Amino acid sequence: MKPFGFSGVRLRALIQKEFIHIIRDPRSLAMAFLMPLILLVLFGYAITMDIKLLNLAVYDQDKSAASRAYLDGFRASGYFNIVASVDSYTQAREQLDQGSVHLALVIPRNFARDLDLGRTALAQLLADGSDANTATIALGYAEAITNRFSATRQSARVALAVDNRLRVWYNPELKSRWFIIPGLIAVIMTVITALLTSLTVSREWESGTMEQLIATPVQPIELFLGKMAPYFLIGVADVLFSVAMGVWVFGVPLRGSFAFLLGVTAMFLVGGLSLGIMVSTIAKSQLVASQLAMVVTFLPAFLLSGFLYSIDNMPRFLQAVTHVVQARYFVEVLKNIFLKASPPSFVADDLLFLGLFAAVVFSVALGKFKKKLS
Fold first, then answer.
1. Per residue in 104-124, pLDDT tens?
2. Under 8 Å between Cβ of 274 and 361
3. Do 131 and 202 reside in the same domain of the chain?
4. Does any domain span residue 266?
5. Are 206 and 283 in a shared domain?
6. Could you tell me the CATH number of the domain that includes residue 138?
7. Fewer CB near the terminus (10 Å): N or C of the chain?
8. 25/119 same-domain check
9. DSSP SS3 for 109
10. pLDDT by residue (tens digit) across 51-66?
11. Please, are residues 220 and 5 in contact by the beta-carbon 8 Å criterion?
């Protein structure tokens, strides 16, 4: 019979034992410290929504001063590089078919005459829609240039019907990295925390040391917390390192409370580490545990957290599924802390769900862990 009661001495011994395992296992050390660095650098530089240079083909049938002034707007924007001046509509289409350009601009005859007569001058933009995101952004840039050119050609006696004055808050230069990096930190930590703890219990089963632990006076709750505590500290260190990378390497501003960030991180780590232990309890093999952890963390965190794809644009049934994805709430809170400096009251719903997830998964994982040891 194991003695009843929680023992801080036994818990401290278990934590020390787990730290020794981690230090002696180079794979765990690499996963704990190198993997977040590698993923952050790879994804941080690879994933970008910014379009800085677009190739443009031009078919100018008018060849007037007005058409040249219109094209100067594209050159001066810094977004377009006129790589081809073609002599027919067919050649413009061929440039798009070959993938040589993102857009083809067709300026018809009488372009200047229509402008001089006060008529609407027509011009056509052909876009390569095989990359829908690039095409949408390119058309947006072209529309802005066209609107600016149109405003300069209007008579001084005619005022604009609507004079829009746009101002972008929180990310005035619309840098995609500013909203990608906070979400990326959440996705990476979701995967890392589950992977780290998913291997710890399965390693004990494979090595045969779990049976030895069961034979000792150690209580299941002590063993559970002893497994979790070292990885909790490692998780905090990883988050701090990732935040430092985001601020100093990628230039993302941290406008919110650092203490609030640490508090949310602690809540998130409890849920993530508990999920990993639950996976490890189900799968006794380290290989199966790691594969299962990747399936239940990486794909949902990457696709269903709102990190890259807006949840509001997803089908209804997928929007419902996202409510059980822990990364969804961590992504939203991190973006608010980094860019908006939001207080806890502004993200109360996300904090509530994040805490609820941590409590439920911790309870279920502990219950399965006790049952496995009994």
1. 999 989 888 888 887 888 888
2. yes
3. no
4. yes
5. yes
6. 3.40.1710.10
7. N
8. no
9. coil
10. 778 899 999 999 999 8
11. no
